[in-house]
Inverse folding.
């Protein structure tokens, strides 16, 4: 069963499934790569919202450009900004720490040339019933 699960994960990571921006199946992973290249962080939401409000102001050329939803959204983003900063900090610390704490059995499977032993053989060596 585990062998089948590892094979499923390998096939998923190598072959997709990929979707385009409308959510339809696609053979290319261009949309996924474009989303990952954006490097979105939770703490950037406030900056993005302020940038959008500035664009609205320039487009309105001095007229009333703010709606009640814009003001409410700005207040909510300001209220959640400290929590988003803490989330980003925690994520960065966790990402750094987790690199070296994986078991050797997992690290072997992450090598570029692939694993040198079968997972089922390693489990049998450890006395686990498969």
């Amino acid at each position: 069963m585990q062998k089948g699960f590892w094979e499923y994960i390998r096939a998923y990571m190598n072959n997709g499934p990929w979707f385009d921006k409308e959510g339809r199946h696609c053979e290319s992973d261009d949309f996924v790569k474009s989303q990952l290249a954006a490097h979105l962080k939770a703490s950037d939401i406030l900056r993005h919202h302020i940038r959008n409000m500035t664009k609205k102001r320039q487009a309105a050329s001095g007229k009333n450009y703010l709606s009640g939803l814009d003001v409410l959204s700005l207040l909510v983003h300001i209220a959640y900004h400290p929590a988003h900063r803490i989330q980003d900090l925690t994520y960065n610390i966790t990402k750094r720490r987790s690199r070296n704490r994986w078991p050797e059995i997992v690290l072997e499977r992450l090598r570029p040339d692939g694993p040198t032993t079968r997972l089922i053989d390693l489990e049998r060596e450890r006395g686990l019933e498969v």
